Amino acid sequence: MFLLNTAADYRLPLDPRDQNTLGIAAAEDVEYYLGFREDHAITPLVALPGLARDIGVATIHVKDEGHRLGLGSFKALGGAYAVIRLVLEEAERRLARAVDMAELHSEEVRAIARGMTVACATDGNHGRSVAQGAQLVGARAAIFVHSGVSDERVAAIARFDAEMIRVAGTYDDSVREAARVAEAKGWTIVSDTSWPGYECIPGLVMQGYTALVREALRQMPEPPTHVFIQSGVGGIAAAIAGHLAIALGERRPVFTVVDPARAACLFETARAGHPVTIAHGEPTVMAMLECYEPSLVAWRILSRTADAFMTVEETDATGIMNRLAGPAAGDPAIVAGESGGVGLAAAIKAVADPSIKAALSIDGRSRIFVVNTEGATDPGKYEEITGLPPAAVTAKNVEGALT
């Protein structure tokens, strides 16, 4: 399915709140914070000239977030950043003075952090980031996971000393249960989705994601003309679209938001022209994108900055995993999880459909940018789909460099 943005506020300026959250100064704050992370390294921007030639565009660049902060997902940038900002803000309140990021590991700040508990609901990746952020500062973390989250992903979160709480139902059920318990216990919810009256913290999470956009713009020889970004509740798509609109202005690329067909809450929201909750259906292999209700803040941004919305099928998601694991001649292999390559799958699908290609003005000069939002965060599932362990795919690049 495909549709162009027909929202009433399409191409209007961003809400001032969102301009502040996703603007240049805010992105610089995120980069300043990352400078204090021992495990921080700029993630690679991978060119795929072979695939670009095959589908008839000028360039394809993939920002590979499978290498981010040891967590294998772009979400490493959001949850941990929000937790640390909240700890610093609480320290400023209690100490009645400005507290810099450089003081994060001081005994004064850590004593305050020890009295704080952060909580969230997760499909896996966001919870890992929140738990890691809490461990970094000495706070407690309580992570709510729904019945569809694999034991392997639960174990990956628990290794950060987080309390794991199983919830029957879907991701959206776990969001509601996390909010209920947190309110009762006085915990701070660090969610990557927003609802009426709860916008500031999801804004901090999205702010963390601007780092990958800043890096990519510096890494690319020219800005992209077309961007395809996958979406769960909308946070990553909104962060990238919003920051590109601010950074590039009238030169911003054509931006397409991509949903799984089985969990297309942003697509249906765009069709309706206002946020809608969709019915739960058959689970999607794109587990990190299986959301049935959009973030209100994300929609506020995307209604202005997204140009189009489209969906991909289950076979598109698994097909791109295999295509990246066994790439076109001359292209490096990329380890992409079940949700990681969805933006690229949509780009290939758009170019192959004459009507979509024309609607998006894609031609032989187009420069496509996508994000591999996760590596093999569930290695067992990855091998089941591709027939290869992640290490074997990575080894292809080493072998290629030696020959």
From TrEMBL:
Coiled coil: none annotated. CDD domains: Trp-synth-beta_II. Residues 41-359 form the Tryptophan synthase beta chain-like PALP domain. Its cofactor is pyridoxal 5'-phosphate. It comes from the Bacteria. Its EC number is 4.3.1.15. It is an enzyme of class 4 (lyase). The keyword Lyase applies. The keyword Lyase applies. GO terms for molecular function: diaminopropionate ammonia-lyase activity; pyridoxal phosphate binding. SUPFAM superfamilies: Tryptophan synthase beta subunit-like PLP-dependent enzymes (SSF53686). Pfam families: PALP. Keywords: Lyase, Pyridoxal phosphate. NCBIfam families: diampropi_NH3ly, PRK08206.1. This is Diaminopropionate ammonia-lyase.
